[in-house]
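ugh ok fine here u go
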Amino acid sequence: MARAIGMDPASYEQAERTGKWTGDARQSAALASVLSLSARDRLTATGHDDRLAELRGRRPRPAGRPTSAVAKLTGIDKRTLEEPLRTMHQEYQRLIAATLSRAGGSAASGEQGRVYLDQVLDHF
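structure:
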């Protein structure tokens, strides 16, 4: 596998042993290709799902700087990400607006927003 993805065998073995991915973006993309990983599985395999959740969980935002960071982390082209990220942003905004109007701005109004953010990787 190390040779197939262009990684030093000792480094790959260490990643397997420790569960900590040290590969670069090119190696991560090659790993995903060789193993036919989905974007979500690739993030999990390389240990980047927490970072993606952090990037998206601050608050889903429309395209812009965060799109670049997500593209770099996932290996997905920025242009491909723009629409899904915009959709996530719109879903989050609709959810927050609906919960605020129903709850009259109470503490419960943010609960659905928190749930959405807790599940941001599933939405992604």
